[in-house]
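writing this on my phone so excuse typos. first protein, seq and then structure
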Amino acid sequence: MALAYGLFSRLVPESAMTALFNVSFMYSAIDTPLLIAASRKASFSHLGKTISKRSDFMIRNILRNAIDKSNTLRNNLRMLIQKSYKFRFYPTKQQAEQLAKEFGCARFIWNQGLIRREYAYQQWGVSLSSAYDISSQITRLKKLESHAWLKDASSCVLTQKLIDQDKAFNNFFKGRAKFPRFKKKSHAQSIRYQMNQRCVMNNYRSGELLKLPKLGELKVKWSQVPTGIPKMVTVSKSASGKYFVSFMCEVEQGLKPITGKVVGIDIGIKDVVVTSDGFFSGAPKFTYKYQRELKKAQRVLSKKTKGSNRYKKQRIVVAKIHEKIANCRKDFLHKLTTNIVNEYDVIAVEDLNVKGMLQNRKLSKAIADVGIFELNRQLAYKAGWYGKDVTVISRWFPSTKTCSSCGQVHVMKLSDRVMNCDCGLSLDRDLNAAINIKAEGFSARGATYQLEKVAA
């Protein structure tokens, strides 16, 4: 960063500073003896001076002073980010009945719009109907006595559902998603309300009040006080029957202090995360933990008559177990990724082919239980929030098969848990991969790397 560069230019002559900045990125950790030795050799030998015993102390102080000044500046910097909040709420009997109508009407509008769009796609291969065209057809349907029940739902809910379908088709035609599917009553439901910004204080007060059309005031369990004003509110009902409200606000976010540390991360099954520093996160394996309970509940569900009241009750039991597994996994990943982002400034990860990995019948269940996509997603957005950097390594890089000491590529089976090389290296398979990922992250940014970028 510019501040670190300016501090270096004042404390070290220009010729020595240039040589110091050309030190290999492999020695970027500030407390690593290799960095001190390389920096000392680059700077003092370039000046033609005798290396003294005080050189290590001086160089370390230069680096630490630059980081301290940079942290002081970062503490005063604020950036605007989009932050989403999700809270559970408990509807009254009347609100639950109204929400059932809203969900039903929104589901009908989605399916009717999808029928018309699907016909256009099958006939001509394009999406001819936009949300506004279908909206005019829905308006005509409301005037018919057979569809008068559509008036029970808020008009903004139906409009937003068609807009969401527009986005779904745009993502499909651009190759970012699959073809949109029909919605079912037994699945999770969601609708969106647009907040009127002209009288937003009458409908929303952070941590105190939230009113929605035809629902009134909601009994929200505010687990935290949001900052900012939402423009759109999403009401959802999970498959287990719980109600949630979520919205996004524009908030000011401070940057995390820089630590000057860089790490390579290997993602696996035995340990969800293994860092190049030697940290092994372990694997909770929540699916296996609740497997017996889930199997028993699903066996009971299979014996019920589909569509009966007892079938519906047992389906909720199964849904609650799945929800518990998902919540445990998400909690574990959030804590893990937060610790990584707080501790390191540059994070190198692999671009794994998760879809291809899930086709392995023997390991697909264990791979899905890790949550690789969610782990990478959390690392990416948290690093963006706090001014950290994530470097993605090519999936074709042989991180596991390469010796981290001499660079020789070996043939390894999945059962080989230790990297044994002819050079004398004997290291854990995942730790060896993490070290290689870190080294590849350096080379991906160039053969040489400026020290001030490491500190950012």
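second protein below, same order as before
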Amino acid sequence: MKARANAVAEPAEVKVVGKSGQISLGKKYAGRTLRLERFGDGRIVLTAVALVPETQLWTLSEPHRSRIESALDWAGKTEPRESNLDELLKRVSKSPRRRRGRRR
């Protein structure tokens, strides 16, 4: 796992585990998802994580990731303009129709 280059250590704190087995990390972490790692020497490491739904994992693999990045780059550099709907309809009517349904 890569450490973040801009990660700066904050001063160490001492927390006391309550009778219910809980500690308070403060409002900074309220609602966040954390990964808990327990080590044999007694260390516990909490790492803030972001979860990706399985249905969206494809966006993180190539070639999809590069295509999405280039599309976002293009969108950031390109001024929006109004579409000519009549011209778009002409293009659609000229293109060959694709069959819908299952491929065999």
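Residues 34 and 49 are 6 Å apart (CA to CA). thats all i got for now
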